[in-house]
Amino acid sequence: MATKASTNAPTLQPPAPAGETPRLQVEGLTRSFGGRPVVKDVSLTVMPGQVTCLLGPSGCGKSTTLRIIAGVETADAGRVIVDGEEMTAPGLHVPPERRGIGLMFQDFALFPHLSVAENVAFGLTSGSRAEKRARVEELLRRVRLERYIDAYPHELSGGEQQRVALARALAPRPRVMLMDEPFSGLDNRLRDGIRDETLDILKEEGAAVLLVTHEPEEAMRMADEIALMRGGRIVQKGAPYNVYNAPVDQAAAAFFSDLN
Ligand code: ADP
Ligand code: MG
């Protein structure tokens, strides 16, 4: 629910292209733990169908930022707005399940006692049984796992489980997908293929994606926009090519230096 205050709040982002509302708007997020600031005045915007990578070294506050956007962690200050609707604001906390946000976190395993179909259907709370089944089949076709529809997670490889997790997260048609290092558990041989495939599916589904990674290569490969984070702050934002070619400072250049 938009409040009057939000309408009058200063805009921290460049204006969106005419006619387009940002799917995700984050303004001035701030969070301390035990008096130690961990997220400092983080602002970003993600348009529908766009992938923004929150990129930075371990410990810089990426996961905390994502957790606040998801609603599983609270902010000390700032706003989270999805499709123009306030989710986090002073005195307001919309619970995670009502944010229209899909999550794929590093440690978000499949439910081992549920079949692949049941895992994918898990977040489908509305619709008839036939509609749910159709959506599950559609997504499993898309991740090329329809033959495993009645299998159990332990029968699948790591990469296959990852694709089921993606199907599960996308099943309820989330407005925003938050992904925290979703490929870090996969071995190198599989990773590139799964990244590309995931990107194709995300684009088809049209969600706004905020993907956290500490690997510049992953951000360069997947992002429409990179938000470079360090010490709790976003220090640079831009298209991958621009961030890579015109790093804001020495530390940013060093961070990208392994890439060639
Ligand atoms: P990243 O995902 O970039 O590695 P995190 O957001 O996980 O960084 O963590 C940023 C900092 O905040 C770390 O120093 C971490 O120890 C600290 N931190 C995260 N969550 C908590 C918490 N619940 N309590 C105390 N400190 C935390
Ligand atoms: Mg993290």
From TrEMBL:
<keyword id="KW-0813">Transport</keyword>
<keyword id="KW-1003">Cell membrane</keyword>
<keyword id="KW-0408">Iron</keyword>
<keyword id="KW-0547">Nucleotide-binding</keyword>
<dbReference type="GO" id="GO:0043190">
    <property type="term" value="C:ATP-binding cassette (ABC) transporter complex"/>
</dbReference>
<keyword id="KW-0410">Iron transport</keyword>
<dbReference type="GO" id="GO:0005524">
    <property type="term" value="F:ATP binding"/>
</dbReference>
<keyword id="KW-0406">Ion transport</keyword>
<feature type="region of interest" description="Disordered">
    <location>
        <begin position="1"/>
        <end position="22"/>
    </location>
</feature>
<feature type="compositionally biased region" description="Polar residues">
    <location>
        <begin position="1"/>
        <end position="11"/>
    </location>
</feature>
<feature type="domain" description="ABC transporter">
    <location>
        <begin position="24"/>
        <end position="256"/>
    </location>
</feature>
<keyword id="KW-0067">ATP-binding</keyword>
<dbReference type="GO" id="GO:0015697">
    <property type="term" value="P:quaternary ammonium group transport"/>
</dbReference>
<protein>
    <submittedName>
        <fullName>Iron(III) transport system ATP-binding protein</fullName>
    </submittedName>
</protein>
<keyword id="KW-0472">Membrane</keyword>
<dbReference type="GO" id="GO:0016887">
    <property type="term" value="F:ATP hydrolysis activity"/>
</dbReference>
<keyword id="KW-0997">Cell inner membrane</keyword>
<dbReference type="GO" id="GO:0015408">
    <property type="term" value="F:ABC-type ferric iron transporter activity"/>
</dbReference>
<keyword id="KW-1278">Translocase</keyword>
